[in-house]
């Protein structure tokens, strides 16, 4: 038997969710393979990569789709084996008309830089020293990470590190810019000289792309990085 969350994701609700989140090209494939319930919540990027000839989505859209489905899984869920039911007779499929489904706003990964460029940019930040008490408070706060964190964090051997560099007396601030995109096709240059706050940078990206709302409503990715599928939580 499926648990309550699995039963809620009927075929009708999956189709409606795909329409709301602008994944219409994937509807026929999901319906043909009866990808709903547990099978729908288990969909990830490796599985989507196996649908090369039959799946009319770009690489960027596949990443977006995998991340959007991941946000639908229960918080206590860890690892499940993926199972897909192939059923050509769907006359007995239960009908479910949802009243509303939340739309997950996403911004695809960037293609214009790599980890080395971003690391060099981060190293130029001049981080003022903080007291031990403030450091302890920050460590305590880090245990309660919100659903959509505002700071990117890369785990493993390639983890970013913030270093403090003291500029010399005659050091001048160089112009710094990044390239941002919301569709992986058109890129815009954004000047970030003097920006230290990650939230300020993210909100500047949204303004540059003409997107309304605060940065907490969107997901940010660094394309061509070691963990391009993982959202930036920094």
UniProtKB/TrEMBL annotation:
Superkingdom, natural source:
Eukaryota
Cite the InterPro entries for this sequence.
Answer: SAM, SAM/pointed_sf
Record-annotated SAM domain positions = 9-75
What the entry lists under SUPFAM superfamilies is as follows: SAM/Pointed domain (SSF47769)
Q: Which protein, by its recorded name, is this?
A: SAM domain-containing protein
Q: From which organism does this entry originate?
A: Rhizopus microsporus ATCC 52813
């Amino acid at each position: 038997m499926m648990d309550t969350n699995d039963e809620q994701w009927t075929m009708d609700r999956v189709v409606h969710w795909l329409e709301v989140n602008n994944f219409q090209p994937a509807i026929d494939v999901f319906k043909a393979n009866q990808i709903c319930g547990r099978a729908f919540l288990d969909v990830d990027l490796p599985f989507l990569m196996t649908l090369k000839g039959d799946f009319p989505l770009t690489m960027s859209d596949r990443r977006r789709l995998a991340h959007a489905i991941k946000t639908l899984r229960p918080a206590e869920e860890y690892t499940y084996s993926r199972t897909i039911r192939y059923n050509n007779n769907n006359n007995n499929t239960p009908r479910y008309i949802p009243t509303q489904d939340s739309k997950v706003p996403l911004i695809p990964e960037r293609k214009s830089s790599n980890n080395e460029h971003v690391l060099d940019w981060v190293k130029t930040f001049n981080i003022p020293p903080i007291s031990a008490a403030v450091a302890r408070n920050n460590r305590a706060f880090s245990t309660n990470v919100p659903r959509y964190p505002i700071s990117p964090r890369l785990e493993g051997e390639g983890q970013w590190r913030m270093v403090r560099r003291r500029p010399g007396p005659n050091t001048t601030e160089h112009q710094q810019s990044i390239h941002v995109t919301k569709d992986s096709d058109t890129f815009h240059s954004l000047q970030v000289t003097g920006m230290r706050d990650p939230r300020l940078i993210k909100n500047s990206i949204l303004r540059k792309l003409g997107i309304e709302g605060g940065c907490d409503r969107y997901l940010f990715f660094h394309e061509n990085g070691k963990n391009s599928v993982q959202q930036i939580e920094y």
